[in-house]
Structure formats: C-alpha cells, structure tokens
Amino acid sequence: MLSIIDIMGPIVESVQKRQDLLGYIPIYTRSLAADNILDFDLYVFDGRDMVLFRSSQSSLTSESCSDLLKRNLNRLYVSANQRHEYQQYIRTNISQILEDKSVDDFTKASIVYDSAKELVRDVFADPTKCQHIKDSQAFVESTILYVLKGQNAFLNMLRVMSFDYTVFTHSVNVYTFSLALAHAAGIAKTDELIKLATGALLHDVGKTRISESILHKSGPLDQSEWQIMHRHPQWGVELMSETDLIPQESYIPISQHHERESGRGYPDGLGHDDIHIYGKIVAIADAFDAMTTNRVYRAAEGTFSTLKTMSAPEEGFDEPLLRQFIRLLGPVRPDIVR
Ligand SMILES: [Fe+2]
Ligand SMILES: [Fe+2]
User: Fold this and answer.
1) Residues of the chain with CATH 1.10.3210.10
2) To which CATH superfamily is domain 104-329 assigned?
3) How many whole angstroms from 121 Cα to the centroid of ligand 1?
4) C-alpha of residue 258 to centroid of ligand 2, in Å
C-alpha cells in the first residue's frame, strides 16, 4: 500500500521545484558572448536547487560556454532582481547575437521575443521615462532586419509567440504581425518600417492610465468603462508626447489602431480616406492578435474563423491589406499560428 509520503512526495517535490524556479528567469546560454564580464550572476538548475555557476564581474570564458553547451545546458538562470542588468546586456549586444552564425534561428527569435516583452514591461511601468523610449527605438532598429529576414524568421517568431494574452505579449505580437504585413504590402524603406514598428510596439501604451479592474474585468464592460477604454489611443499619444522622442509617424498606429474603414471605430470615427496605412496595418494586426489569444473571459478563436470574421465588410478592415495578411499567414501551418 502507498504511504502518504509516497503520494505527497512527488507533489511536494514539484511544488519545491516551482518555488526554486520562482525568483529566477531562464535565459539562453547562447545569448551570452564568451570572454565578457557580465554584471549579473548566472545559475544552473540541478533538478533540485539553483546553483551559482558564475558570479557577476567574473568573466565567462569560451571554455565554460562550450562546456555548458556540451552538457546540453542550453538554459541558465538569472535572479529576478538582476533582470534589468541582464536585459541591458541583451539590448547592448542584440545585433551581435542576431549576426552570430552559431546561434540558431529559433533561439534568436526567442531572444528577440523575450527581450521585446521585457522592454514593453519597462515602458508600461514608466511610459514617460526617456531611457525606456530610447531603448524601444534602439531595439526596433537592431531587430527589424532579423524579423524581416524572410519566411523562416517570421515562422520562428510565430512559433515563440505567446498564446496567452498579456498587454506585453500582445504588444510584441502586434509589432511582429504589423512589420511582416507592412513589408508584404510593399513598404520597403527601413526608416519607414522603423517608424511603423515603433508605433506598433507602443500602440497600447495609453492603457497604462486604465485601472486593472477594467483591463482585467472577467465580464463585459459597462458603458462608462467602455468610455474609459475608448480613451486609450489618445492617452497613448499624450504620454508619448511628454517625452517627444518618437517620430511623428510613430504616433499614427497609437492613435488610429481602433479606427475602422466604416467610420465606426474610435476615438475619432475616421473613414477610409482619413486612416493612414500605418493605422490600417496595425488595426489588422491588433484585432487578429486580440481574437486569437486566450483571454480571462474567453478562449482563443482559431486562425481560420478569426480571418473569416475579420473579412466581413462590417468589421471595417482595409480589404486589400486584409487579403495580403491572409496570404502572409497562408503558407503557415495552422498549428503554428493558433
Ligand atoms: Fe488598443
Ligand atoms: Fe492592442
């Protein structure tokens, strides 16, 4: 007969394991350049405990890097209270990581995705802090060529995307979809893509002025709550104007991503001719991501039915752009996109 220890043992162990992992963030070993002084500690998880592998300020040698990879230790851990030091390291070194031929495309996509998510987290924590906005722009500039590198890079970005909605993952998903759609629609100049992508990444920043109780309400919003919600595009513009660090064109996705061709969108009820192409692109990316991710109050819709719903003329999306978006997702296996 099984004793209570036999039954509880694995449960206690798995709770313990989760406790051990709490307070640490997993990072990719390949994201670290050898022979670098890192100002954060590195830990390995031995299956039971978090063990200090390399303390900050000591150099990570190429021998120890290849030794880790030989032992299949592709993931290391950084203490959550050194998250900022690690993110700063990634932001400084992202170009080299993306150019490094020894780092596979899937790992690159994961690093770009995680890093963008953390960046948005910082911006949302303090949207008027100049450094956060400068970091966002620098990040967009150094990752844009990777995201546009071809179908493979786009597929890898789709593979690493989170299906569970948070405003951080949503912002990065909208950034990825908008960039791919803009490129497919013929916007080829890098400086234009940077302006669009910066606005796409920050499109919902105005939601930082909305209370958690409205943002995470499990039931439908009442009329006064919708009135507050409808103000987030304008609030986003106001917040970004305080630092005035992003280009004028980057304000367009922030102010127009809820406008619709029919004139039934918000905040200004603009019609077809008055909505800028950046607004039309981010509107499609935003609605698609919102409908295909899990929310507290409903499960994610499938790709096919979402695109079908969005194709109805009353939904008010730009038809040629929406067709382009469907073609973009067409070659993607349905199990990769949701
Ligand atoms: Fe929005
Ligand atoms: Fe959004």
Assistant:
1) 104-329
2) Hypothetical protein af1432 (1.10.3210.10)
3) 16
4) 8
